[in-house]
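Final report, closing paragraph on structural work. Over the funding period we assembled a curated collection of sequence-structure pairs, and we close with a single example.
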Amino acid sequence: MLSQTLFVTALIRYDAARKAIASAYRVDEAKKIRDKAEAVRTYAKLAGDLEMQNMAAEIRIRAERRAGQLLSDMEKNPGTRGEGRPRKDGTKFTRSSRTTAYPPKLEDIGITKDQSSKWQRLALLVDEGTFEKALAQAREKNGELTNAALLREIREIVTPVEVLTEPDINVVASELIRDIESVSRKEKLETVLRLRKRLNPTIRKKLILALKNSAADVSDCEAQLSKDFRDFPVSGKAFQRVIRERMAEEPDPLLAEKRALATDFKNASVREISLADAKNVIVAQEWLGTLGSPEHAFGLFFGDHIAGVACFGNTAGTNVRASVCGSEHEDKVISLTRGCCLHWAHPHSGSFLVSSACREMTKKGFHVIVAYADPEAGERGVILRACNFLYCGTTNPTEKFRRPDGKVYDARNVHLLTRDRRFGMLRYKRSRAEQKKILIEEGCEFFKDTGCKHRFVGIFGDRRMKRILRRALRWEVLPFPKPEAQRAMAAAASGGSASIDLSVPLQSTAISLAELDH
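Its predicted structure, as stored:
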């Protein structure tokens, strides 16, 4: 009877706490409820009362979400900005009483920067319906309600369901390239050659035959691929435009239906898609021929047909996010890493997709979008400028290195070679300088790439957010270069890039035949 009475009392207090959270209009009010709920949760966990523990955990999470909503809406404290340097006599400039009524600092209300960031992200991550659904699922699936369980359920709910479609031929070809250039395959061949005298004669004979057949297949495939190959023409056209023109020549039984739908944006929708579905479109159209490492992808659909994709991911470099609008806004920065539209899409599909996808990213807490246009690919940032992105000059020249086989890599990839943890063990560990020295000894050439990319920044959100971020923008906004300057940049970029010489045969395993026959 006593336990039942305690339970009813707990339910009454639970309902009262939920109402108090909903009516809270100050951050410190939500913070007090959160702290009390955390104390109850800790006590209930020690007492072994799981139901009471989950009730308290739910109140704490709701209070944190409410505090995050209030923090995101609250005007930020300017800190010491505007006070200037101390005077020579050691005194500081003090604002007048009329200008000192600023919102409290985080430390004044007992909140750390880490808590503020996490709570605001929780508040902006999903809408109320998705939050309630994730909360119920986290409780049901895990028994014990925790922040980690809640975030897992949110991720599961918002992650787009992958549409099971046949992989694009470009995706298949990319996987084939990785198989042909596999380092482990090469290492296995070198090991077999070194220890060939220990081979079973039957195994050795089968291996020789397999290599001969493989060499013949590779040679035949290379000849057919080289026969009608058309490289990217240096004609001033963007690479993606050339691809669209070539794809338009390919037969498509649904082309008439797609074009009919694409005549009106009333038939269009932009929604989040899986990275696998994005890869199917991007790899076929992208200048670099890769998807990169995006975190979010959005597709433009006309009816049920996908007409374009935009991908977002982390910015390159360690301090780029903080350099855009300052460290206080770095959690709002993300990069537009990939984007393309298909040949049958509406002529203005690019700007429609980019602007819509960027607005969707604001719902995830990202209001500053960094994007680049590569003159080497004939890109001039036309779509970015149409979407009101600000031009912020060009990137700095980057260091690259060219391997003896002609392939060019970014010098930042050197650190990836300093460790080898394959097969679950650390085979070697080097410093970056030691690894660079080894690469030079192997015939690699390090050089500065003179091809710089155009850099753009887009600011999205409500009026207040855009005003705050525009004032905080640290990158200099410049007028876009005239065509003469653009042509000079493109010429510099093409002069520093390496091209594929199809007159040189592809490397094959035939080089190992003579050694195996000895």
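The longest strand covers residues 305-313. The two ends are 90 Å apart (CA to CA). We thank the funder for supporting this effort.
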